Amino acid sequence: MTQPVFPELVIDDQLLNIEDVLDLAHQRRTLVLSEESEFCARIRRGADFLDCLLEEDGVIYGVTTGYGDSCTTAIPAELVPDMPQHLYTFHGCGLGAEFSPLVGRAVLVTRLASLARGYSGVSYELLQALATLLQRDLVPVIPEEGSVGASGDLTPLSYVAAVLCGERELYYRGQRRATAEVFAELGITPARLRPKEGLALMNGTAVMTALACLAYGRTQYLIQLATRITALVTVAIQGNAHHFDELLFATKPHPGQQQIAAWLRADLHAGEPPRNPHRLQDRYSLRCAPHVIGVAADSLPWWRQFIENELNSANDNPIIDAVGEHVLHGGHFYGGHIAFVMDAMKTAVANIADLLDRQLAQLVDPKFNQGLPANLSGASAPRNAINHGFKAVQIGVSAWTAEALKLTMPASVFSRSTECHNQDKVSMGTIAARDCLRILQLTEQVAAACLLAACQGVELRQRDNADARAVQGGIAVTLAEIRRDHPFLNEDRALDKELRQLVASIQHQGLSLY
After folding, report:
1. Left if phi > 0, otherwise alpha if psi is -120 to 50, otherwise beta: which for 194?
2. C-alpha–C-alpha distance, residues 261 and 253, integer Å
3. Topology match between the domains 8-204 and 211-316+330-507
4. How many of the other CB atoms lie within 10 Å of CB of 117?
5. Domain locations in the chain?
6. Is 61 tagged catalytic?
7. What is the tens place of the pLDDT at every residue in 449-504?
8. Exposure string (b/e) for 43-66, b if CB count within 10 Å is 16 or more?
9. Do β-strands 8-11 and 30-33 pair in parallel, antiparallel, or remain unpaired?
């Protein structure tokens, strides 16, 4: 069987974008490390400069000194080569669930991108070793918990360093295995880290940045999905499409909000006579949907700027300027920008969950759904009494929404002083990013449930009062895609497996939207 050929993405000194990280993490492209002579020379120049300093007995933080608060401890020359191994070893204390292979690949890409800037004093061979992990899909098993986001993602990134050196565990061909065993099978020689390479691998923002890239891609898709669900609910509930009028939105010119309104106009064929002329104004969860979803849509550009700046930065410490021969001690490992983006994104996403939850509450309630059956039951009259349609699904959506809203407390304001008060102000960027991904998971569950219910509502409306105008274009496409795997709910059936299947489809962006 012929293996698929994916386009190559060359890692050199060119800037990456979020989509590059997502493509490599999802294995839609293959990674190639540049062998261009100028790039290789620039990387090697930093490592050579550090070697010269060591020969001259120069003092280099984390190389000839201890780490963090131990920076006043001088390291004897004969022990300097052992420092990197001790660094990743004592940081091997991560707990909690492990990141998926998808996240692990994104972490490898973000760390490689930073080191390829050429300011970390690492060897070209270290970049090759990282590239090999990605090329052969050898993904470190990384625990989720243990980073305060400055000095970067020390503990989770220690698992990357350890795997490069043939230790701990990795994912290979769908199995979790001992790294040493897999390396022996594949003939891979474990790395022996040079003096600053342990610090360069670990003292950075690669984990939180990888999570931010993944969260951005999911949120971008969720914005479109929530808009399509809003259109379906509007049809089902006989809402007023004129709430999304172009002239109306020209008076409040947020471009993302205007885009949401434009998508809704297209879906709902706005401009045609109202289907319910007696309903002048819909409730806020329909009328204000562009304003709620638009907050996320209008935030995408600045979220992208913050994330891609971090992605393309040298974010370890110290920074090595081999050309000017400077060792610059600073705090580029501080993940404040990512923390701020993640805290903002998780709030915007949770608001979308809340919006959809309110739409579903209208849709299932005969007091508000303009004549649809209670709980959207599709059962025939003789069996109406024992069928409950989407009653329990609405309860589940309420639970998922409540949990999402609870998690919106900003993580970045919970800085803790650590490591003998050396790390006395930290970003909490990785915790913020993990919160954001959890809120995305919950919101995608809400979206899946609301999508099934909205399609049920549209078909119930068609059954009682066929209106061909209402189900055209994008609405018709989505309805057909859903019905391929999720039949109309006539008699009650357990929906958990279908919901899981639809959530997975949403996370793989498998539905055709805008």
Report:
1. beta
2. 11
3. no
4. 18
5. 8-204, 211-316+330-507
6. yes
7. 999 999 999 999 998 765 656 788 999 999 999 999 999 999 999 999 999 999 99
8. bbbbbebbeebbeeeeebbbbbbb
9. parallel
Catalytic residue among 61, 88, 172, 514: 61
The C-alpha atoms of residue 409 and residue 405 are separated, in whole angstroms, by 8
The one-letter amino acid at 490: N
Angle between helices 429-464 and 206-236 (to 10 degrees): 20
Contact between 236 and 186 under an 8 Å Cβ cutoff? The reply is: no
The answer, yes or no, to whether the previous bond of 70 is cis (omega within 30 of 0) is no
Cα dihedral 273, 275, 278, 279, rounded to 10, equals -110
- Measured between alpha carbons, how far is 432 from 437 in angstroms, rounded to an integer? 9
> Considering only the top CATH level, what class is 8-204?
mainly alpha
Specify the CATH class of 211-316+330-507 in words. mainly alpha
Q: What phi-psi label fits residue 96: left (phi over 0), alpha (psi between -120 and 50 degrees) or beta? A: left
CA distance 304 to 17: 9
Supply angle C-alpha 57, 58, 60, rounded to 5: 130
Tell me the pLDDT tens digit for each residue of 62-121. 677 766 656 667 777 778 888 889 999 999 999 999 999 999 999 999 999 999 999 999
For CA atoms 286, 292, 294, 300, give the dihedral sign: negative
* DSSP track, 14-77: SPP-HHHHHHHHTTSSEEEE---HHHHHHHHHHHHHHHHHHHTT---TTTTB-SGGGGGSBPPG
